[in-house]
């Protein structure tokens, strides 16, 4: 009984890991506070060109 349980447990764990790899998360990547500040500074320093 224990051998069967252990084999099934191992197979279920492998299937769960394989399934997790197929489905990616919709969560956006983390951007640090310093990186956000740097991006904001770059956006302020380089304004969009205006048509005259």
User: Rounded to an integer, what's the Rg over CA atoms?
Assistant: 24 Å
User: What is the mean pLDDT?
Assistant: 89
The main sheet comes to: none
Order of helices and strands: HH
Protein described:
This protein has 52 residues and is mainly alpha-helical. 65% of the residues lie in helices and 0% in strands. It is built from 2 helices and no strands. The chain has helices at residues 2-22, 33-45. The model has no long low-confidence stretch (mean pLDDT 89). Residues 1-52 are annotated as: Disordered.
Could you outline the blueprint of secondary structure elements for this entry?
Layout: H1 2-22, H2 33-45
Organism: Shewanella sedimentimangrovi
Protein name: DUF2986 domain-containing protein
Pfam family, one: DUF2986
Key terms for this structure?
rod-shaped, DUF2986, 65% helix, 52 residues, DUF2986 domain-containing protein, mainly alpha, 2 helices
Summarize it.
This protein is mostly helical.
């Amino acid at each position: 009984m224990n051998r069967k349980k252990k084999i099934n447990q191992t197979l279920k764990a492998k299937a769960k890991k394989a399934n997790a790899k197929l489905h990616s998360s919709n969560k956006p990547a983390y951007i640090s506070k310093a990186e956000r500040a740097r991006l904001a500074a770059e956006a302020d320093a380089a304004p969009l060109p205006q048509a005259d």
